[in-house]
Amino acid sequence: MSKSDNIPPQPYNNSNEQPTTDRPVVQATSPYTSLRGTSGSKQLPAFDEALVNKYNRSGPRYTSYPTALEFLPIADDLETKILQNREAYAPLSLYFHIPFCRHLCYYCACNKIITKKNSDSGDYLQYLIAEIKHKRSLLSIPKDSTKPLVKQLHLGGGTPTFLRDEELVQLWEFLQTQFEFLPEDEGDYSIEIDPRELGDNTLQTLRNLGFNRISLGVQDLDEAVQIAVNRVHSAEMIANILNEARDLGFHSINIDLIYGLPHQTPATLDKTVRRIIEMSPDRLSVFNYAHLPERFKAQRQIKEKDLPDPAEKITMLGNTINTLTEAGYQFIGIDHFAKPDDELAVAQREGKLHRNFQGYTIMGDCDLLGFGVSAISQITNVNSSYILQNHTDLQVYQDNINAARNNSTVMPAVKYIKTSIKDRLREYVIMNLLCHDYIDFKDVNQKFGIDAVTYFINEIQQLGEMQKDKLVDMDIAGIRILPKGRLLGRNVAMVFDEYLEKKHKNRFSKVI
Ligand code: SF4
Question: Is the terminal CB of the chain with fewer CB neighbours within 10 Å at N or C?
Fold first, then answer.
C-alpha cells in the first residue's frame, strides 16, 4: 500500500511534506485538542449500523504482523540458531497446543483431532516433554539464575483438559524443572476449558498447581443453537464452574461467546448475554462466526438456511455491545471486553496493553515459545525478530520430534518468517491502533527514525474517507480511532498492512 520501500529517514519539512488541507487528511489543528497521549480506549464504542455495513470486509485478526499467511519453509538448522541466540534475560510466555477433542463442534475452525481414545493424551504428552527438553537445552540462561524465567503460560486447543489430571500434573512438574516461574500472584497461568470436559477435581488440581486464569468456551446458552452446533451444556453447569473457580481463587475468568450461529436470533442471543452477565465473568470474548464450509469441513454440518442473515448479525453485535457496556464492561478491542478492574482493562487505560498470538496481553515483553502440533513461537533478538510454526499435522509433528531425539539440529518448526524493520514499524502501528486506538507520530518517529507523516502519506490519504465518516481523527500529532471506529479498528489497521492488498484480499473472514 505504501509506495515507501525503505524506512530511512526523510527529513521532516513542515512546509513541504506535511499534507495540505486539500488532501483532506492530517489537519494542523484538531477538534480533539488533547489527542496526543490520550487513549480512545477509555471511550465506549459507538455502534453505527450504516458504517458497520459500509466498512465490513474481510481482514486478519492481527495476532501477529505479518500474519501466518506470510510464513515460509524453514531451513533445517535455523530454529536451533534462533533459540541459541535468544536473549537470556528476556522473559518467556509458553504456549501448549493440546489438539484432541471428544466431540466435534460444527462451527469449529481450529486445529484439532476428534478422538475418544484416552491413551492419545499420554502419548502426546511424551512428545511435548521431548520438545520442551530439546528447546530448553538450546536456551541461554541468565547469569544470576539457573533457568530461563517464565511469566506466562497458556494451554489451548483442542481441549486442554483432554489431558488427564495426573498428566496435567506431570506436565507442570516437568516444566518446573526446566524453567523458573514467576510466583502465582505475579505470573499469568491460564487454560481453556470446555465445560463438558472437566473432571470433578480438575479445577482444584489446576489451582493447586498454580493456574490462576481459566477461559470457558460457552458460545451460546440457547438449546436449539447448542443442538445445531453439537455443543450442549446447561447454564447451570457454566454457573457452577464459575462459582467453583471463584471459590478456588482463580484471579480471572473469561467466557467465549459466538454470534452468527444457526438458529440464533437477536432475542435468543440477548437472553444468553444477560444470563452470562449475571454470572459476572471478568472477561468476555464475543466472536463472529464466519461460515466457510469450503475451508472447514466441520462447518458443512451447518445448514446455511439456519444461519441468521447479515442484518440480524449486525443487530446482534450492536445489542451485545450495548448490553455489555451498560453492564459496566470495558470494550478492549476487536471482540474483547473486560471488567474495568481486570488487568487487561487497567493495562489498556495505562497504555501498557499488547497483542500477540495469545491475543490481548499485559505480557508484551515476553518471547513466546510454542509447543505441540501447529504451535507458534515468536522470538525477538537484538537485531531480528522471528515467528516460527510447528507442523499442523500430528504425525509429521511427532516424526519431527522423533528425528530431533537423534539429531539435535532437527527442530519441529517447519515454517517461519523473519520480520524486517519495515514489518516491525507496521506491526508497531497496527498493534497500537488495536490496543490503544492511537498512533503518536512523535513516538513512531523516535522509535524508527522516520518522519511518520511522510512515510505513511498514502495510508493517511486512504484514511480520509474514514475521517469524513468520523471513524478516525488525524492531526499533526497522530491518528486516533474515534468511538464510531472502535468496532472497526481492524479496518483502520488494514490500511497499514502492506501484504493484504497485494496477496490476500479474500483469505480472511469478515471483520463483523
Ligand atoms: S471448537 Fe474447540 S472443543 Fe469444539 S471441536 Fe473445535 S477445538 Fe474442539
Answer: N
DSSP letter, residue 301: G
Tens digits of residue pLDDT in 106-129:
999 998 999 989 888 999 999 999
If DSSP codes are grouped into helix, strand and coil, which group holds residue 473? strand
How remote is the CA of residue 110 from the centroid of ligand 1, in Å?
7
State the closest ligand 1 atom to the C-alpha of 104, by its place in the atom list counted from 1: 5
Cell 544470576 identifies what position?
Answer: 144
Write out residues with Cβ below 6 Å of ligand 1.
101, 104-105, 108, 110, 112, 157-159, 194
**All three cell numbers of 299:** 462447518
Q: Where are the domains of the chain?
A: 14-65+422-503, 77-369
Architecture of domain 14-65+422-503: Orthogonal Bundle (1.10)
| Fold classified for 77-369 | pyruvate-formate lyase- activating enzyme (3.80.30)
How many A from CA of 106 to the centre of ligand 1?
8
- pLDDT value for 49: 86
Cβ atoms of 232 and 193 closer than 8 Å: no
The count of C-alpha atoms lying within 13 angstroms of the C-alpha of 256, restricted to the half-sphere facing its C-beta, is: 14
Q: Look at ligand 1, atom 1, and give the residue with the nearest C-alpha.
A: 108
Question: Could you tell me the distance, in angstroms and rounded to a whole number, from the CA of residue 104 to the centre of ligand 1?
Answer: 6
